[in-house]
């Protein structure tokens, strides 16, 4: 076990000690990705889905100089109530500073992967990863999530990259970085709120067992880095690309006019899209997270089987 300041919930500690399946969950989606109180409902429901599927959920956040692996309901509620400006949005760059200064921090995909790896957790479910922002050729705004996938051995289940991003450039960068991008059960990459993106998937897999086997094979080959499983949103919850694209473009336009930059871009866009769709985008976002949690639990169960 590492020297890192990890505090495990009793439930997660027992599951890991017994080598039972555990699924990591991030906390930025709670503090910066969804509004109160839907964020708390989502966080609880996602944990429930993982338990029902037969695995143990481990929501990860930084508080009081410790990386918490698994939160109590009281802590989860406190975190969900924390205004976005009072929780640091942690990536690889700021994780140590947050811990050393005792501040509260919510982990993004990148930071959650680092913490999950330290804790010995191999699978992580989220909504959508960060990626290359539109206009990145001028702003250089590329999420640290992509570099993390290239170096930390965790399988991340997401509904693709968030469709507010430049998706073709995001997939190009992942290819350059050597990250396996695996579409689950279809030949096309999904686009977060939509099942289809028009972009062919570099890889396709159709079962949790195959995905677990691929992760094990990467370890045997000594390949560093994780895998991205792009799991399409359930059909009944999707917003098609033709419906969501004009909304995304309007939100992007507003972000530019208002000079929103860096870490504020993603939360700003998600909030504006929520308002512009009268809350429909949030319902879809919750549905896709739950769907990803279920698949991640199934993968964790396969990974926990003796070789
Ligand atoms: N998935 C969601 N909503 C979110 C996120 C993921 O459904 O808000 C968060 C993740 O923590 C991800 C972050 O790492 O958005 C990406 O932010 P950025 O584009 O600033 O790197």
> Could you say which small molecules are bound to this protein?
pseudouridine-5'-monophosphate
Biggest beta sheet summary: 11 strands, mixed
Number of discrete helical segments: 13
In what range is the share of β-strand residues? 5-15%
Radius of gyration: 18 Å
Name the structural class: alpha/beta
Q: Total strand count, please?
A: 11
Uncertain segments are none
- The helical percent reads 40-55%
Q: Compute the separation of the termini in Å.
A: 22 Å
Described by the principal axes of the CA atoms, the overall outline is globular
- Rounded mean pLDDT is 97
What is the chains' assembly state? single chain
The SSE string, one letter per element, is EHEHHEEHEHEHEHHEHEEHEHHH
Keywords: Glycosidase, Hydrolase, Lyase, Manganese, Metal-binding
InterPro entries: PsuG
Cofactor: Mn(2+)
Binding site for substrate: 89, 109, 143-145
Written overview of the protein:
This is Pseudouridine-5'-phosphate glycosidase. Belongs to the pseudouridine-5'-phosphate glycosidase family. It catalyses: D-ribose 5-phosphate + uracil = psi-UMP + H2O. Homotrimer. This protein has helices spanning 10-17, 28-33, 38-53, 73-81, 95-101, 109-119, 136-139, 144-151, 167-176, 208-221, 241-257, 265-276, 280-304; strands spanning 6-8, 22-25, 56-63, 66-69, 88-90, 105-107, 123-125, 155-158, 181-184, 203-205, 227-230. By secondary structure, it is of the alpha/beta class. The chain contains 13 helices and eleven strands. The two termini are 22 Å apart. Strands 1, 2, 3, 4, 5, 6, 7, 8, 9, 10 and 11 form an eleven-stranded mixed sheet that branches. Helices cover 48% and strands 14% of the residues. β5, α5 (95-101) and β6 form a beta-alpha-beta unit. The structure holds pseudouridine-5'-monophosphate.
């Amino acid at each position: 076990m590492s020297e890192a300041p990890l505090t495990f919930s009793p439930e997660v500690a027992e599951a890991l000690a017994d080598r039972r399946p555990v699924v990591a969950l991030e906390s930025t989606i709670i503090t910066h990705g969804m509004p109160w109180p839907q964020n708390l409902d989502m966080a609880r429901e996602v944990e429930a889905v993982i338990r029902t599927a037969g695995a143990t959920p481990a929501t990860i956040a930084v508080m009081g100089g410790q990386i918490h692996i698994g939160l109590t309901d009281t802590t989860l509620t406190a975190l969900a109530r924390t205004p976005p400006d009072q929780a640091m949005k942690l990536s690889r760059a700021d994780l140590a500073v947050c811990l050393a200064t005792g501040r509260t921090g919510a982990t993004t995909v990148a930071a959650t992967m680092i913490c999950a790896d330290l804790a010995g957790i191999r699978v992580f479910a989220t909504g959508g990863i960060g990626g290359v922002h539109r206009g990145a050729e001028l702003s250089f705004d590329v999420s640290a999530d992509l570099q993390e996938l290239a170096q930390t051995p965790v399988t991340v289940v997401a509904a693709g990259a968030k469709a507010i991003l430049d998706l073709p450039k995001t997939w190009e960068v992942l290819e350059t970085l050597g990250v396996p991008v695996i579409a689950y059960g279809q030949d096309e990459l999904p686009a977060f709120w939509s099942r289809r993106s028009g972009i062919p998937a570099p890889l396709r897999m159709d079962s949790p067992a195959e995905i677990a086997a691929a992760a094990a094979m990467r370890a045997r080959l000594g390949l560093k880095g994780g895998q991205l499983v792009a799991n399409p949103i359930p059909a009944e919850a999707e917003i098609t690309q033709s419906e969501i694209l004009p909304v995304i473009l309007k939100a992007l336009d507003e972000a530019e006019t208002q000079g929103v930059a860096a870490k504020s871009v993603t939360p700003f866009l998600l909030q504006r899209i929520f308002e512009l769709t009268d809350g429909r985008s949030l319902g879809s976002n919750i549905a896709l997270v739950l769907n990803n949690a279920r698949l991640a639990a199934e993968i964790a169960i396969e990974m926990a089987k003796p070789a």
